[in-house]
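# nightly structure sweep
# worker-07 picked up a monomer target from the shared queue
# config: single-sequence mode, recycle default, output format = structure tokens
# input follows
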Amino acid sequence: MNRCGRPTTCRQPRIVQISEERLGEGEKRFQEGRFQESEEIFREVLKDYPNHPKAHNDLACLLWQTGRVEEALQELTKALEIAPDDRDVLWNLGQILGSMGLNQDARQVYDSYLKRHPEEQDMAEALSQLEDESIVSANDQKSDKTR
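# output follows
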């Protein structure tokens, strides 16, 4: 609202709008399985906007899904340096760490975010699932020792 009480519309700067449109194209190609094209788009956006956390996050997802986990973690690290409380970046970091069997590290990521955002249900569920997996794993290890 402006001072006169009339609604005003906020527009993103044209540059931001263009980068978001390009990221949308990259995400669409990713969903279609056109990974090379998608990666090229994400890297083009990062060339023009190296501090764009969403571009780093999107590239990280692509890298992870194509088996380049170390590169994905590097991109997420860059995204976190720019936007340390970005929900999507932290979610993906937790997912990747969990997929690597680094459940303790993944739990720390989720737990830290939940302390700042206790209303976040997806993170709470992911944390709960990791804790359940830890309990099952611990019980399996105990039963192996008693055999």
